[in-house]
UniProtKB/TrEMBL annotation:
Gene3D superfamilies reported for this sequence: Classic Zinc Finger
Name of the protein this chain belongs to: Zinc finger protein 239-like
Top-level taxonomy: Eukaryota, Metazoa, Spiralia, Lophotrochozoa, Mollusca
Family the entry assigns: Belongs to the krueppel C2H2-type zinc-finger protein family.
SUPFAM superfamilies in the record: beta-beta-alpha zinc fingers
GO molecular function, one term: zinc ion binding
Taxonomic source organism: Octopus vulgaris
Amino acid sequence: MENELYRSEVECKRESEEIDFSDEEKNEKGKTAFDCDICGKSFSQKAKLVIHERTHTGEKPYHCEICGKSFSENGHLTTHKRIHTGEKPYRCDICDKSFSQSSNLTRHKSIHTGEKPYHCDICGKSYSEISKVTIHKRVHTGEKRCHCDICGKSFFDKSYLPRHIRIHTGEKPYRCDICGKSFSETSTLTMHKRTVHTEEKPYHCDICGISFSQNDHLTIHKCIHTGEKPYHCEVCGKSFSRKDTLTKHRRVHTGEVPYHCEICGKSFSRNDQLTMHSRVHTGEKPYHCEICGKSFSRNDTLTKHRRVHTGEKPYHCDISGEKSYHCGICGKSFSDGPRLTVRKNIHSSVKPYHCEICGESFSQNGCVTIHIRIHTRQKPYHCEICGKSFSQNGCVTIHIRIHTRQKPYHCEICGKSFSQNGCVTIHIRIHTRQKPYHCEICGKSFSQNGRVTIHIRIHTRQEPYHCEI
């Protein structure tokens, strides 16, 4: 550290030596004073005045010989070069993390100490840096100093503008040296390395001990213990533990869908939804199963798929060992509440989601999306073997098993194999003689819901299928 400080002092001396001090002026108190002719700001050293004047002239005399980027100060060039060299000379003595700039190390240490000595005098919110207080105050004043020339969007903090512009340009200057993937922000690259390659989780909850790869994830997690939800929707009053969740929620009221697919024009309320949707067109499946080699477009789908191989059933009741969400009508268990709600809608015939074209109702919102493709005749998913098209990605997966003859789902009672998990569920009812679906008119029971639909036509005398000849 001492060597680095000495090196910085030498660099400052060199820069000072480049400037002529022959025209020094004295103020009334006998101290040297140098004033900017443009804005009137005063400096105690002429070297600092020369550097300051470059903010007005735009002069950037120091150039990076690797990428050609220019800087107004030699020290800024030195710091910039570390992006190319990977040099991080400043190390945290608590967690051993390294940084390319001394100021970044100082900011990082506040994570460990929790120190936030700078306060907003309007709302009392605290920050670890005074610059963040200055930026925060613009929330109260409404001041937005920076504007995007492309879309006109305004920002409180000028550091957000370069990152925002990359949305328009598609520039991704930060590259992973392990897998080669590129990112638009250095923080995203850091997170990528932690989650995909190193699995580093340096942020720990002091209440339950769970670890996280990002500090903001730890902050959000702590709200589970405290129950704090500081972000409130001014329309419906609903509260959230995260500001970004509130922003996304507001779009329910405004109908805003700011993310657009450049290929088909479809719009989304969240950027991650657009990213996943884009893979429908590109066919990208970046998540691979290390056991069977199968690829997926979503990480959570890969996680669920792995359970086919491991037999893992991770959601259990601590007391009975059963899954947490149990349907009292058909006996089926689910790993989360929303899936149980959907299941109950099937039994209760509640269908809150409607097709705007024909008015048909559904128990799940996703079913509406799939149904609309009947009207639009859209079939965006294709079989790579025979070229057949489908309206649902799951149908492609099931269809491909016709070619591969794969039957990954097995009956635990008789060992019979099936290409679909739902077929196993229906088949097992042959052994258990379970018939969870009942006719509301005569009370007759069936093992499949579709058979109830067909049976009811005996009572209604409905004949929906007609011969066209």
